């Protein structure tokens, strides 16, 4: 006896499609992305203040840039890895950093914005509410920088084609090691390495050998090229 032929679904059968939710987070009042920026899928920009992203910057999946309280500027060739958060009000950085310092976060002090210099690297899960991070500095996985922190020294101002100001910093190569916490309004001198929680030292090798600095910068450029080959670019979603 032949097996019964399975009934075909009727033409008016409805497919169960879940409607995609729209984000309720506010979009930045002004978002400038250089055409060479790489924005991976699920990277996001939120807030009510301007966000400016310089040339060749790479934002990995699920990275978050927030201008909820102050503007954010990312300089040339910045890399923000997965689940990293940049911007004042982007996470619980202030509470954790203040707790680690054993004191107040000095909320009354003025914070004008978050500025990341050229070739800064923000690794996975880091929370950045710092005021300024100097060029070629590395903030490793899970590190926390409280509000108003200054990593490296400000050296000048770069005016972009559309009139926005981009704060530029010289090569200062600071490093905040994984899961270290920098309390609010801390100023780290050039070539500082933060390690073992809150301990600090100066990287004298980088400080004394410009050729090592050059090698590190060349490696960073190669990383940027590699990401362009590996990560699909979703910049059209934001332009």
From TrEMBL:
Task: Name the PANTHER family for this protein.
Answer: DYNACTIN 6, DYNACTIN SUBUNIT 6
| Signal sequence, renumbered to the chain | none
What residue spans carry the region label Disordered? 1-21
User: What name goes with this protein?
Assistant: Dynactin subunit 6
Instruction: Check the record and name the InterPro entries matching this protein.
Output: DCTN6, Trimer_LpxA-like_sf
* Purpose: Part of the dynactin complex that activates the molecular motor dynein for ultra-processive transport along microtubules.
Q: Give an example GO cellular component term for this record.
A: dynactin complex
| UniProt source species | Periconia digitata
Q: Which subcellular locations apply to this protein?
A: Cytoplasm, Cytoskeleton
Family the UniProt entry places it in: Belongs to the dynactin subunits 5/6 family. Dynactin subunit 6 subfamily.
Listed GO MF terms: dynein complex binding
Keyword vocabulary terms for this entry = Cytoplasm, Cytoskeleton
* GO annotation (BP), single: mitotic spindle organization
